[in-house]
Structures are given as structure tokens and as C-alpha cells.
Amino acid sequence: MISRPLSSWLSYADLNRLNSQHKCAEKTTPSQEMAQQKKWANRVSQIANIYHASKILEVGCGNGLASLQLLDSRREIYANDIVNHLDYQVKHSSVNFSTGDVCQQLPYASNSFDLLFSINSFEHFENPLAAIKEMIRILRPGGLLFLAFSDLYYSPWGLHASRRLGMPYPQLLFSSSTIQQFVDQNLTRLAHTYSDFSDPTKIGPYLNGYSLEQYRQIFKSQKSYLKILAYVEAVSLDGLHMIHRYPGIIKDKIPSIESLFIRGIKLLARKKG
Questions:
Q1: pTM higher than 0.90
Q2: pLDDT digits (tens, 9 = 90+) for 155-206
Q3: Which of the listed residues 89, 92, 147, 233 has the most CB atoms within 10 Å of its CB?
Q4: For the domain that residue 138 is a member of, what is the CATH number?
Q5: Is residue 3 part of a domain?
Q6: How far apart are CA 177 and CA 182, in angstroms?
Q7: In a domain, 249, yes or no
Q8: Which residues pair with 150 in a beta bridge?
Q9: Domain range for residue 215?
Q10: What angle do CA 222, 220, 112 make, to 5 degrees?
Q11: How many separate domains does the chain show?
Q12: Cα 155 to Cα 132: distance, rounded to the nearest angstrom
């Protein structure tokens, strides 16, 4: 077991060495992306059918393909994001799209929706507490909120950059300046690994950096407004070998040991009132 002084970081040479020893993830193909969106849409559809939800909003919709899969004659489907990155199929569909910042105010009246869902977006919202309060505002009394998001920042793939850095926990092993140096010196080679509309001058998308404990506190703080119907935390042990190899570096930078292993959260709740 290698130990290093507290608050230390690995070097740029270490980053290149470790990256050469770990296989980076492959970029998702269009068919794989569609399959993922269909999977999430099927889960949302099941919730909608069980609870007879007909007016549905997706927050942080990205390309909008999950919303597209939900369209049928029984439903009004709405989608929202801070920017318009809709897939062409969605643009030419009956999905009702709007731009707006859920951390500020969305362009919808209070008590508007039967079901609101957000998939793999909550960890990108700058102010998750403000976001959940805004979601609650536009949800009707008795309406449902479904959140599913990963990877949490302190978990193995929490940097959301596994197509560029193949080792777990790079955000805890290397300083932000070292990671940026890697991007700057490999712009051309890394270009094909980014998703459409991503910024290739950064290692990955914007992350709020919230911990597991902070998310738990946010949900707890809204218990006067939400009744939790289901809550699941997903575990990942992908980084055990890195924790064993660099315990001092990693453990010095985390809020809890538990935060290293919880990679994602799923929550289903009903608005009270």
C-alpha cells in the first residue's frame, strides 16, 4: 500500500502512466443512446400508467429522446432544458419544448404537471435545492417526482470523463490544473470522445460537486412537501484497487468513506397537499 502526505496530488506523469494502464470507455453509439433513452422512458411510462399521469414534464431533457418515447394519444409531453440540444426527431414531434433554468424559474404555472422526471441531470444543476423546490412548485398536489442520476461526484466515475481518463477517481487523485493540462495537450486526440454539443476544451460537463450527504439533506429538507415512495442508492466498487493503492490521497479529499461507493440515486416521491 502506497501512502503519501495528506492534501497531495499525483503528478502529470502519473496521470499519463495510469491512463495508459486503464482502458477508457467507448463513446456511446446512436443506437446505444436510443436504447438507453427507451429504457428510461419505459420506466417513466410505467409510473405514468400506474398513477394515471397524463401531463408529463422532463427537466434537463438533453436531446429529448426520452420524452419522444413517451408520446401517445393519452399524454401531453413537455421537455425543458437550459439550452436547446434537441435531436431532430424531437424537434419535428409534438413534444412541447421550452428553455429555462430550473434553478431559477421555469416557464410554467404552479401546480401544472401530473408527473415530472429528470434523468442524469440533477448532478449538473448548479443549485439542486433550488431546482427541487422549483420542481415541487410546478407539480400539482398529488403529482409525482421521479429523479434518477449518476455518477455522484465522489464515486469512481464522478468526473464524467471515463472516455478520456480510464482510471477511477481521477477527480480525487489529480488537481484540476493537472487534468486541464492533460486536456490542453491532447485536444486533437480526444476530440472524438466528446458527445455532441460538449465543450472539448474541458475534461467533461459542468458538475455541481455535491456529495451524497448533501443530496440526502436536500431530500430530507423537503419532507414537508414530498412523501418519498421509493429511494434507492446504487453502489459501485469499481475503484477499490485505487483506494487500496492511494489511500492517503483519496481519503483526505472526501466527506465520508460511504461517498466513495454510492454512484447514483433514484427517488420517486409524491407532492403533498
A1: yes
A2: 999 999 999 999 999 999 999 999 999 999 999 999 999 998 999 999 999 9
A3: 147
A4: 3.40.50.150
A5: no
A6: 9
A7: yes
A8: 264
A9: 12-271
A10: 25
A11: 1
A12: 22
